[in-house]
Here is the input.
Amino acid sequence: LHADLANSPGQLVRLQSLDGYLQVKIAELNRTVSLRRAQGEETARQAMMDNTGQAAMNSIRSLVGDMMVAERTVLEERLLAARQAERTVFTVTGGLFLILLGVCVMGGLLFRRNFQRLSAAEAELELKARVLQATLDTVAEGIAAFGSDGTLAASNRQFFALAGLSEEVADTRVGLDDLAALDTQGDGFVASIAAMRGADGPTKTDVVEVGQQTIEVTYNAMPAGGSVFTARDITQTRAAEAAMRQAQKMETVGQLTGGLAHDFNNLLQIITTNLDLALRHVDNPVLQRRLRNAMVGAERGSKLTRQLLAFARRQPLRPETVNLTRLVRDLADLLRQTLGESIHLEEKLSPDLWTAMVDRGQIENAIVNLAINARDAMPGGGHITVEVANVALGEHDARAGQDMKPGSYVVISVSDNGSGMTAEVLDRAFDPFFSTKPEGRGTGLGLSMVYGFTKQSGGHARITSELGRGTTVSMYLPRSFGDEQIAKTGDLSNLGGRGESILVVEDDPHVRSAVVLMLEDLGYQAREASNGKDAITLLENGEPVDLLFTDVVMPGEIQGPALAEEAGSLRPGLPVVFTSGYTAETIMHHGGMQDGVHLLSKPYRKEDLARKLRSILGLGDAIRTARPIAASQPDDHPTPAHKAAEPFMETGGLHRIVFAEDDALVRLATIDMLDTLGYAVQAVADAESAVLLVEREKPDVLLVDVNLGGSDGREVARKALGIHPGLRVVFATGRDPGDLTGEFPNARVLDKPYGMPELKAMLDEIFSLA
Here is the structure.
């Protein structure tokens, strides 16, 4: 164009300006593409919002329109000049034909040359028009330029696509009013932009809703008369912005609720622990009933915090490979009983279904909750369908799913043919505490839990609904490429005996008989004694005994502690397990317990007995003959005075636990429970003291809060294991601690709030590890 317009100074000035704006636009496009490749679509979209590219395009369109008008003017002037020259030549030639024949011939030659120039100019102009049209057709926005007389001067195919009109209309040099008349939608795209003519100022931007599309239209008045309209479809942009706002809102609310739930969990931990301890020391039936009622209320509060943590994506999850076909079939009977006879339940399970990586308990709860929600939407009865299918999402599908990631998913959909949701309800369906049910019929946390659980699992949740036709809630769960491991409930095969001989000392014949039966069923050989004196006689006679299992309080002169002491003299290193319904404090009053002595509180189950015996007999002589730890502190690691903790004193063979918890009330309550359960415990409030205590005392277990007063409990565990590799670790937390299995394969997680049964079960499990 620079070469073609070398003789047109005015056009060259416009062309130079056009070149500058083109460079701006190209640079903006390059930057957008680079951001898209480097940082993703979301960053690129945000970069496009600064309107630099749009401003450049507006200037380009205006300059192109001016150039086209100028070129048409030049063409018309040339055509007029040519016609005038032609008439002059013919007039002069006719008058002087006879006299100036030679001049006539020469004039004919001049005419021919001028005609050739005119043809070349027309061909050149047509080429420029084709170049401009091709350029316009490559622009994503729709463009239409109208001359001062209101007729269509230039356009691209995108404009007619948005208008829903045929491109052939452009060849008729139709006017804007004619196009508006052809717009059969009445209040459609063309009719809407026609109303923008005569707007105040040279530029105006408006948004037009046409069917399911949202179109942004910009009107530019040209200085020489006429106007240029540009239009772009912003439907996807608006949807993406809405999705981003929703995600930001959910993230903000999630952070708030997660923080509240974590703090509330600590309060519930204090309440439940002290209620549990109080129940063990209250004999008044009225007070016991009131304390149990208070415990029920605390458990309800704990359920609420779990729901809040689920929405905030901070609940402790234990994902595993799950066969959802088997899971849904197993749930079907429970669902039918729960939903009632007025609800028809149908299962649609695709063949060759993939396994999914998900927390089994959470997905079962989610399906049940969704089914109950569906039932409530059909008070007169109806049809519920639970469908499971494989879905592979590509980039485009993932974008359509808002913040979903491309990949392979197993989708569980729960559908009903109930009342459906309005658009307003649908927009807020996943919001916590939002519910359409009457007051007292729900917390409004059901769907928000489903949303948080699926997002935390690496998937997504989606709702589609139509008034009067029903609702479908779909959970997208990440595919697992492994096989489901079916757990064997109550399987004690790894906890059974190896033929060891157990001496059972119990004065109650019924209890003694039951214990013997359990031991023999577990694979042990059992020998019996009804009192301490008979037990000593058996030991003196040389009966083979690998472990002494004795009650603490028995009739006669020889009680459990005295029997353990005498047995230790007769059989040095013989492990002893006390069993009693009394607390550890009471047992200590009966003479104390020596090294190698353990406690199994009554009542206990067969699994409890198996774990306790295996934890002792399977640990080896090193732990059986453990000695008290020195009370002195190494000189090279002095402890600050304000953080000093008393060393373990004589433990009498109790397992030793270092407990790190920054909340003083939680710390004190847990110490009481550990003492009651018969463990030697030292508690500290900060990370540094915990590490120093582990280094000094070499305990059996480190029980540490994941969020330890601004420190990370996992870092405490790393340092402690570096000092004491044989240390067992239990993390206590009220939220999801993340994946700990990779770095701490033998560690366990104790969910807050916990009571004495949960604490006991966790410690029994951790001590059962070889």
The chain has a mean pLDDT of 75. The first strand starts at residue 142 and ends at 146.
